């Protein structure tokens, strides 16, 4: 049961800990949750202690969305908060519409925050949203990380995303707005049972009499979050003992990996795949379990744009050649979001994956100690169809290659999720 009459502004302020950002962005949809967030942050910081800015993403997916975005801007203006509407100009592709819209929303909002030098972006997710997330992940048989729900704080492309309302129920926020005479918009898609989240919302109405309330499930997420932090620490210690980064790949001592507890080995491998692929979200648990089995048994597997390659003593997690075949860049530019190549005469050259044919032209590649499938997905310098240099494969010819992320950054990533 949610405590009645809580001091919600004080709770929200406490989520910022001791260090307040000079500028704070607010993701404002115009719905009840984000409208409450807008007024709560104005109540907390409207005296000038923090500069507040708001932005609304107009996905343009239904009639009236532009009017709703304008209404959200008007609400911000009444509080003296600068506001901007961000348009989603890309049309959705086939597949999960809500997932595409969510990804676009984060991209647009974080881009807006960086443009305006806003280090922290506040999001209006509530205890109800957390409960729905936990239910959805239970339906997928998620582990500790999935059941820990949405993180209160995480970094996305240089912007800190903060959810200060995760312990506050939707009904509390509606009462807060009603007490202040503040109106809000209702998104009709919130009643569309074609969407999984809406179905989970309906299910919660039937589960509440059994004690499975949004507050209870949000509490489960908090407990799982604490367990996740403890597991992440032991993953970090294990990685320090048995992992290193070489040729842009994460390399594990196979003998030591096989002695790890199942959950630790699973989590270490998930993080390795995610770090190599650069994906925002980890692979699903079932295919990852197959990857862990492959690492333990000494076989190979491809997953999420990556490849796991086993040798007698090591397990290599690298990019899959098919995932980078077709990626091109000019020398000195970022290739595959991970590599830069410098040096030599760059006229008429471009950077492409080495591939099997390129590897065959590198006489000393075995001396590198790196498996061939790993080298095939590394960058090489090509002049038309002719291979000019492959620094990672031992054919430098005056060129050098370096990754954008260092070994220390990989270890740090194990504690940053």
Automatic annotation (TrEMBL):
Catalyzes what? Answer: cytidine(34) in tRNA(Ile2) + L-lysine + ATP = lysidine(34) in tRNA(Ile2) + AMP + diphosphate + H(+)
Write one Pfam family the protein is assigned to: ATP_bind_3
Main enzyme class: ligase
What the entry lists under SUPFAM superfamilies is as follows: Adenine nucleotide alpha hydrolases-like
Q: Which domain of life is it from?
A: Bacteria
The record ties this protein, via InterPro entries, to: Rossmann-like_a/b/a_fold (IPR014729), TilS/TtcA_N (IPR011063), tRNA_Ile_lys_synt (IPR012094), tRNA_Ile_lys_synt_N (IPR012795)
- From the Swiss-Prot or TrEMBL record, state where the protein is found: Cytoplasm
Q: What is its EC number?
A: 6.3.4.19
Q: What is its main location?
A: cytoplasm
Tagged with keyword Disulfide bond: no
Q: What does this protein do?
A: Ligates lysine onto the cytidine present at position 34 of the AUA codon-specific tRNA(Ile) that contains the anticodon CAU, in an ATP-dependent manner. Cytidine is converted to lysidine, thus changing the amino acid specificity of the tRNA from methionine to isoleucine.
What does the UniProt entry state concerning the protein's domains?
Answer: The N-terminal region contains the highly conserved SGGXDS motif, predicted to be a P-loop motif involved in ATP binding.
Query: Which protein family is named in the record?
Result: Belongs to the tRNA(Ile)-lysidine synthase family.
Q: What name is this protein filed under?
A: tRNA(Ile)-lysidine synthase
